[in-house]
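Instructor's aside before we start: the two examples that follow are unrelated to each other. I chose them only because their records fit on one page, so don't look for a connection. First example below.
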Amino acid sequence: MNTTPLDMAAAEALFAFWRDAGVDACFEDAPVDRTVFVAPTPRATATITPIRAPGGAPSIDDAVAEARRLAAEVRSLDDLAQAIAAFEGCPLRAMGARQAVFARGNPQGALMVIGEGPGAEEDARGQPFVGQAGQLLDRILTAGGLLDEAFITNTVFWKTPGARPPTPQEQAICAPFVERAFALLKPRAVLLVGAASAKAVLKTDESIMRVRGQWRDWRLSEGGLSVPAMATLHPAFLLRQPQAKGLVWQDILNLSARLATGAVEPGA
């Protein structure tokens, strides 16, 4: 069967929509007995294989501990950027990334924006959200009167191979640095951009369509700090599905109004 380029583009856009909406399974032609355990194939677990040290023992705990130690020692965002650049515990560093990509924006702003991870453009320029999706994010934040208040970072600081979403392990290793950035910034609200960011920060398996637009409480495991956090759709998704821009605009108006009035209580 010959498939026209238009058909392929439509199919890719549809698949991308369902992926970003949180759909990760589909019905099969015949029922499957889920009470019978079938070991997953290597391909199914390839993206979540534990990081291993040269001796073969898992090293993710060591990497997280080292990240936590380094993050705890820094006293400024500049020092944090240097600590991230020197950190060698994240496996993404050795997967083709040119450099660490930490943050951009206002370090005294009231809003912290957390995306998934840098792409090729960000990897080349050393700043997050500077490609086509980042330009759209800036326009959205500007329209909501939030760009000047925003400090923008990601859940991981090195680009992923093939622009895939970061794995939970990669996010866990970088999480101490993200949490330290929050502790130093003390923002009044956090905007989580995309499904991978929302799941990592809010510790949830809910789809982005279910959690977007809701205020949740992001509470650090240490120090007792907490902040209201809202998830929204990723601008890369909006480039593929522009009809969803209205949903994001609702979220931005909600965020902007609450920052303006100071009413940013979680669960509101």
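Example two begins here.
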Amino acid sequence: MPQIPPDASTILVVITAAGRGTRAGDGPPKQWRDLGGKPVLAHTLAAFAGLPVVLTIHPEDRALAEAIAPGVPLVEGGRTRAESIRNALEAMAGKGFTRVLIHDGARPLTSPALIARLIAALDEAPAAAPALAVTDALWRGRDGRVMGLQPRDGLFRAQTPQAFHFDAILAAHRADRQGTAADDVELARAAGLDVLIVGGEEDNLKLTFPGDFARAEAILARRTGAPAMDVRMGNGYDVHAFTEGDHVWLCGVKIAHDRGLLGHSDADVGMHALTDAIYGALAMGDIGRHFPPSDPQWKGAASHIFLSHAVKSAAGQGYRIGNCDVTLVCERPKIGPHAAAMQEALARIIGCDPARISVKATTSERLGFTGREEGIAALATAVLVKE
């Protein structure tokens, strides 16, 4: 928790949470994804406990925001980050705020010490922002080739929160006609404001790419002393009816049979259930969300496409497959003679040891649609591990 100054009620915090975060990979917008057991944005809000906060949000996210930030003013964002922040500043103008911290909702690890330094810096200048000096060599490139060098002297990596005198940054936003500024320091400088550089922090990372979530988990674990391992489990269930044909695909293996399975793709019921189990562990819905059956491009598609996508989505969020268990429910064909081949096929697609894959079968004792041999059902469980 930041060290709250006596006049904390006059210091506003604007947190941006209206973006979609497409570079973070498949899944919900990054501010709503899980980090250490709660949404990223919940960590960000906690960093500013004790200070008045306003959130910029996407209209579709209002219910999510109200759930984790009850009583916090919510302002719908604009087409750009700059427009979103101006909307928030305008909404809070005239309410007695003299200073404002503007922060990315996807930076959940801001420290109390950094917040305190920024607030103190506003006693010396109308604006202050955290940054880290660039220490790596810099290249200019084109078409995958190095085209020249860029001196790194005097270059910094910008962070947030960025701190301002409230009226000064509001005036800078009102004077901006483009609404495309990369950050508020750009607008402050365009308005002639002096901006102090405050030492940033390596832990104050912005979650941008899938791998950033694993880094953030490790930082949280280090701070709390908790183990860095994160384990998730998902379940999947699928059914396909029999139709005319001479074979079925089950868990990546083609098996001769007197009938086929009906489906928009190759109807591999086992692989579909396993794919849904992985998506479920990631809270990413099911196959239909990612590969709609209404889309003709997936007609007759091989199911390994779906499973590979789910596995890549897991890897993109820093997870590996711990183990998988698939149960096929049918009277025929007999699964036992093919179970080992199914294990091998699934392991190749997933990229893991076959010993981590279980494929087994059961009958329904001649009960129900599987007992009447009208179709095949499959159940699957997947465990994902992040270390």
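Residues 230-386 form a domain with the 60s Ribosomal Protein L30; Chain: A; fold (CATH 3.30.1330.50).
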